[in-house]
Write a sequence for this structure.
DNA sequence: CCCGGCCTCCCCATTTCGGGGGATTCCAAC
DNA sequence: GTTGGAATCCCCCGAAATGGGGAGGCCGGG
């Protein structure tokens, strides 16, 4: 943070123009930071990263065209040392977990204070990691849980759309008995009391989207 | 919009500091607008409105302490001519409907372009109404639908939390048969295929929250 | 090579739902 | 004062979901 160091070069990726504006003006007020590019979806982010190779990328998760998780994976495939901070509205512990597994160094909420954000940028730039406390807490509550398998997620998604077991079976090309088995596992793993509760829990935790 | 007119006096109400920053810097760039106050929840909004009586209030819906709908109702009880524009992330047609019934003159998404926002501010200040096209479309699809009654919402909320009809009945102090009747009505009104689907539809449309 | 996880399928018994029907009471609005 | 909506309760019945058990095949890591 000494004045002799070059500024932290930052890329912003978010599809909300207003939020980009807010970030941009926040960064403009920090003498040790400079904004090098903006992108409004994952594809643009990839190009912008290649062109500018920023020190820090601030990335939203929900975006059209290419979501933040895929963008993080793609960026870190080409640049394994890229430091990326996810900045999002809350969407459950699973989304955060996926972002971190994809290589994010930070996970923050858009509702946080400006001060915390700039501190996190400096912190991550210095090589540390920073996960918002409430998200860390929620992730910790589920570390011991078995995650849903791909097949179980498929079943649950169809159930969320109103399919009965028999219809799920027909759509997936498997027997109704298999669907029942998957649902039994889902109920157990999510600690849900019935299929409706399971869908609600999965939506809250970011395990499925609708 | 002539330079001789006094500027449009604006109040911002949003719990996201970053978004307030973005709005603030956007307004600062408009010669015919001036920011008179900011608030980060409904209560503060009420006080700020009384103190400053802005021409336009930009209001989020989801906030701690006092939500946007209640804040709109409260403000317009004291100041029936207040012009309020709701600025939110998408949460279903029902939330928009409630905001408009409470007296909002505009309903916009946070993902919109800056240009559209400043145009809407001028438009609403001139006495017109402005609802984002996609929201208007979705609201139009449901104008013919019967809305859920208070009791039906109560039942659906408990169902979403994993209660069986029998348990909903016990919690609400009514008979299971009554719960079944309510659920039948809910399924019909929402066009849902089963209770799980009903909960998902209600969540998407902003009819219930979890 | 063997083990574990995943996916698949099957059986049984009980409970819960969903879709019909109908009925009463209460309150507020016209 | 009648009318209508909301809320309450009741019946029947077939379909669906839940909870318990078991079991075989496949694939990848140790």
């Amino acid at each position: 943070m000494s004045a002799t160091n070059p500024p932290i070069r930052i890329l912003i990726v978010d599809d909300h123009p207003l939020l980009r504006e807010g970030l941009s003006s926040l960064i403009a007020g920090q003498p040790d930071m400079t904004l090098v590019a903006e992108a409004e979806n994952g594809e643009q982010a990839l190009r912008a990263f290649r062109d500018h190779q920023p020190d820090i990328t601030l990335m939203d998760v929900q975006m059209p065209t290419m979501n933040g998780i895929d963008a993080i994976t793609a960026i870190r495939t080409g640049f394994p040392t890229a430091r990326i901070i996810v900045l999002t509205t809350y969407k459950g512990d699973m989304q955060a977990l996926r972002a971190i597994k994809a290589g994010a160094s930070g996970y923050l909420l858009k509702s946080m204070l400006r001060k915390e954000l700039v501190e996190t940028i400096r912190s991550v730039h210095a090589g540390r990691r920073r996960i918002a406390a409430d998200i860390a807490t929620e992730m910790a509550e589920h570390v011991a849980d078995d995650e849903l398998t791909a097949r179980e997620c498929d079943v649950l998604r169809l159930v969320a759309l109103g399919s009965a077991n028999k219809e799920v079976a027909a759509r997936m090309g498997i027997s109704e008995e298999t669907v029942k088995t998957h649902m039994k596992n889902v109920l157990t793993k999510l600690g849900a009391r019935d299929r409706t509760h399971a869908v609600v829990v999965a939506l809250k935790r970011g395990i499925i989207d609708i």
Summary: Residues 164-166, 180, 183-184, 187, 194-195 of chain A lie near DNA strand D (CB under 10 Å from a C1'). The longest helix of chain A spans residues 176-190. The two ends of chain A are 44 Å apart (CA to CA). Chain A has two domains: 8-141, 150-204.
